[in-house]
Amino acid sequence: MAIAVKNFYNNGSVYWSSLHNLKLSYKASHLESLNVSAVRNVYNHKGTVQYKFSLKDSDLTKIKTAPGIDLRPVQFQVQPWQADETCFVRNTGKGVLRGTQSMTVLLGCPPSMKIEFDPEASVNTSGKNQFCNKKYGIACFLYEHTFHPVFNIVDESTGSMTRFTEKYHLAIIGGGKDIYSIEEYTESDVALFNYQTHGSTSTLIWTPKAKNLGSIPSFNISNNGLQWLCGRKSPCSEISPVFPHSPEFYFKLEFSTRDTEDDNLNCDLTAQFIIRIHGLPLGSLYPATVIVATCMAFITAYVFTMYAFKRNNHKLWNLTRDFVHTKKMMGEIWIRQKIGRAKVEPAIETSVEDCDTDGRKGVL
After folding, report:
1. pLDDT of residue 137
2. What sequence ranges are listed for the domain CATSPERG C-terminal (predicted)?
């Protein structure tokens, strides 16, 4: 908030020494609830003294509320002194207000505040190649790499966006093999699939990289690493790949600042987002299935081939024998013709006997 105070004397001239004496006081209905700071600037060439006030909730209640819920009003008032009657305040460029100015300040979590997952920063934070691209506009991460989520806090009233650095919790609340099969997990499933310090690890989907974050890990910007486990009883275990891609799984996560021990934040912020994890381990079942299926295919092909040969064995043998014999005869004739030794078989002499009518034989 900026307030400008200008001082004139009756003849219209400005006395520069009077600008340095001009002051601005303030008061609040609950001053203990506000942290007030001010910056004073004197502009002699304009005959103006500018005050920039910064108001911040002292958060004495230590209660986190959702944006715009249970706001507490506090009256704040400013009053120039050691100035004549021409003092005024400029606020948002609308009109000119003279003298004392009052306003109502709402304490609590601003209704315009919200949290957003930053996929680009999350991909780049690890400094490693994730070996995949966005799909359906959803960020993709490699199973073997540590996941470092990054969040921004956005003020929709001003459009400002800053990196969120306070404490928060993360939980996986849903998942599926593709974007269209994502289902919400029940409360009992959420308790089983998310990190816990007791019970079996076979149902866990993830674990914090740092092991000193408590039973319910509280992450922050400098300690936000997650490592994927996909235990054998978790929903992301034994995922079959779809050729030519590696096994992948979609997770729905929830961000929350509720129940975090943080004195610098009075907002109960929540956000849900979806990520895609690829390169999941195949597990023990899939390689065994591939080996068995390959062996069965070879055995089936061998049996079928042998059966076909046995059924047509005599036909194949006769055809092969006739083919070889024909080729052999044709080769011999061709060779004999070339060397002029083709054999000609002698004609067989025949005799004809004539018998006369009286039974005597005659030779012709």
Report:
1. 87
2. 137-304
